[in-house]
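Apologies for my clumsy wording, but could you write out the amino acids of a protein and the C-alpha cells describing how it folds?
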Amino acid sequence: MQDKLTIGTRTFSSRLLVGTGKYKDFPETRDAICESGAEIVTVAIRRTNIGQTPGEPSLLEFIPPTEFTLLPNTAGCYSATDAVRTLRLARELLDGHNLVKLEVLGDPKTLFPNVIETIAAAKTLVAEGFEVMVYTSDDPIIARQLEDIGCVAVMPLASLIGSGMGILNPWNLEIIIDQAKIPVLVDAGVGTASDAAIAMELGCDGVLMNTAIAGAKNPVLMARAMRKAVEAGRDAFLAGRVPRKTYQASPSSPQTGIIAPAAAKSQAA
C-alpha cells in the first residue's frame, strides 16, 4: 500500500499489528504473522522468551528482528514501576530498541487499563528516550494527556482484551481520532474481520490484535482475512462514504430523460 503509516521515527506499509501469544507453537505463530502481512509484532516480555531464558526456544528464531519490527509490551504489569522495569529490560535484550508498547493493567479480571499508573509510566519512559505506543481507555481526555506527554501513538481499547466483542463505543473513538495529532490504533476487543474494517472506516490509523487471530479455528486463514479487512476499511475511509439519510431514499438511476412507457406515449398522441 502506498498509504504509509508513520509511528514515531518509523514508517510502515501495513496498518495491521499482531501479537505473538496464544498460538499452539512458534511455527504456527510465524505462519499466521506472515499471512497477516504485519510488519509490527508485539512481544510480551514477561511471558515470551526472547533470550532472557537461555536453553529454551526463543521467539526470535521464528520472528527475527531482521524481518519484523518487534514491539516489546508490558502485558501482565499492574504498576508503573513494573512496566518501566520491563521495558528497560526489553531495550537491553534488543540492543537499544526503543519503540515499545506500554500497558498498565487495573485488575486481572477485566484487564482494563489503570490510566493513573499508565500516565506515570509514560512520563518516565518518554523522558528516557523511549518511543511509547500506549494502551489506554477510550476516554478522549486521557488520550489527549498521553499525547501531550509525548507518546507516539495512543491505542484505545475497542472492548475488553480477548473478549472479541468488537467496537462498543465508536463515538468516543471518533472523538479521540478527531482531536489526535498522533496515530490512533484500536487495541483489544477485535473478534473478526468486520470489527477491523469498522475500526479503519472510523478513521483509525491501524489495528492491533492477537486473540482474534490466534484463537480462531484456523489462525492462518483468519490472519489473511484480517489483512484484507484492514486494507478494505482504510480504502473505504479514504474514499469517503455516502452520507446517511434517515428515512430518505436516493435512487441510483438518473431521474431525467426517462423514456416514457409505450402506453403513455399512445395516450399522449
